Amino acid sequence: MKIGVSTIVGRRDLLRAVITGAAAAAAITAVALETTAAKPSATSDKRRSRYQPNSVEVRDFYRVNRYPPH
Prior knowledge:
Elements: H1 11-37, H2 43-46, H3 56-64
């Protein structure tokens, strides 16, 4: 008598496979994002001043966020 291989997949086995696949995909995505985000920047870019007190955005911020006098 031949013993056949069962090809029936149970609900729990299917759930395990889906969870394992999702966890693997999340891990691969996290590693890929980590490696692309770790680019070193140039030293001249680090020393560049970013704050410009006379810019339109800074003036608008202080104009909008003024509190009424007491």
